[in-house]
Amino acid sequence: MEPQPLLIYTPRYIQFDYGRGHPLRLYRLKLAYELMKDLNLLSPPVKVEEPQEAPQDILLTFHKPDYLKALEKADQGYPLQGDYGLGTKDNPVFPGVYSFSKLVVGGTWRGSYRALEGRRVFHMGGGMHHAQPGEAEGFCYLNDIVISLSELEKKGLKVLYLDIDAHHCNAVQEAFYHSPQILIVSFHQYDGEIYPGTGALEEMGEGEGKGYNLNLPLDRYTEDETLWWAYQELIPPLLEAFQPDILFTQLGVDGHKDDPLTSLLLTTGFYERFAQDLASRWHGPWIAVGGGGYDLVNVARIWAIIWAYMAGRKIPDQLPESFLRVAIMEGYDGPFIQDLPGWTGIPGHVPPETRKRIKFLANNCPLLK
């Protein structure tokens, strides 16, 4: 019997709040979950499990003890001491921030083990790829991705980590820059201005890990066709050559054309083709986590589309009335789940600069030669 697809989610997530005016609104998780349920994407054999807070010893596999203590004390209302990136505009200290962060780590950590059972697992609350060992960074307090990848690495497993968030996975790159076991591929906006400023084409790893860290910087206003072409040039041959034991994807959707924090021009069309291709091409263990995405309606729509392919379900064309009532208040008048139903690609061409970047990666990655 084929293992059940698994969605990891808890309503506890919306008990936490980054604060008024912060771009990261955790209500997006509930909205995505409710949309999936209303679209019949969570009925059997799909299983839903609630995450549990990660134990301290797991957190210590990546994070420094003094930072964890500072985060815990800040959560308890003690005055901030030391430079831990806490209490800033990006990383506010809000009630329950430590419990929330442990919940995020616990969901992804356990989810990776569940994926090793042969499942496809999606933990929407995960994806905190900026958190550093001793510092909060980029809306991220504890790094669920690095902690989970480290556990898989210790088991001797090879992992292809694919990150499609519009912001570069700086902390993940740093953690595995010397490892040939964790093949990192990141598609991200890179224009000298967008946070975090890392992820240049030439950052390809060091030592035994040289050539196992692949960055594809994307220019502002990159459209579906360009990224879809680049995906086809990189991911299928890498899966074939690397033969990973598990696929780990970070599904930040802030590359969508309407996202308020970025300048890419992707539509639901790219994300749908991406999910359809991976779901049909990869049949092994697969753990996916959320990530960026700052337009509530688009996050819910795109994650529902991706989950449908992961779970082997069909996607209805129209959004349910219950979702539309919320979507309209957020400025989306629908009624379709896709930006353009039946989308087949925006006519255009792949910019020469993108072709040059792919050629550079092909010439410098041993897996692509």
Please characterize this protein's 3D structure.
The protein has 369 residues and is an alpha/beta fold. The protein has one domain (6-364): Histone deacetylase domain (Arginase, Chain A). 36% of the residues lie in helices and 10% in strands. The protein is built from eleven helices and eight strands. It has helices spanning 27-38, 56-59, 65-75, 97-115, 144-154, 170-175, 224-242, 268-281, 296-310, 321-329, 352-364, and strands at 6-8, 47-49, 120-123, 159-163, 182-189, 213-218, 246-250, 286-289. An eight-stranded parallel β-sheet has the order 2-1-3-8-7-4-5-6, with helices on both faces. Helix 1 (27-38) packs across helix 9 (296-310) and helix 7 runs parallel beside helix 11. The protein starts with 5 loop residues before the first strand and ends in a 5-residue tail after the last helix.
Strand coverage percent: 5-15%
Percent of residues in helical segments?
25-40%
Q: Main beta sheet: strand number and arrangement?
A: 8 strands, parallel
Q: What is the fold-level CATH name, i.e. the topology?
A: Arginase, Chain A
| CATH class label | Alpha Beta
Could you say how many structural domains there are in total? 1
Computed Rg? 19 Å
Structural class: alpha/beta
Order of helices and strands: EHEHHHEHEHEEHEHEHHH
| Strand arrangement across the biggest beta sheet | 2-1-3-8-7-4-5-6
**Overall 3D form:** globular
Low-confidence stretches: none
Number of helices: 11
**Total beta-strand segments:** 8
